Amino acid sequence: MKVFSNQRSLPTRQSNSSLARDFLELSFQMESGRPVPVMTRFQGPITLRVTGDAPANLAPDLRRLISRLRTEAGLDISQVPRNRDANITIQAIPQRQLQGLVPQAACFVVPRVSNWAEFRANRRGNVTDWTTLTHRDKVAIFVPSNVSPQELRDCLHEEIAQALGPLNDMYRLPNSVFNDDNFHTVLTGFDMLMLRIYYAPELQNGMSRDQVAQKLPAILSRLNPAGRAGNFTPQSPTPRAWINALETALGPVAGSTRRRSSARQAIDIARAQGWTDNRLAFSLFAYGRLVARTNPDAALLAFLEAGTIYRANPETQLQAAHVEMHLAVYLLSSGRPDAALTLADKNLPVVSQAQNAALLSTLLMIKAEALEQLGRTQDAASVRLDSLGWARYGFGSEAEVRARLENIMSLVPRRQTSGG
Question: Residue 304: which residues within 8 A CB-CB, separation 6 or more?
Answer without folding.
Answer: 327
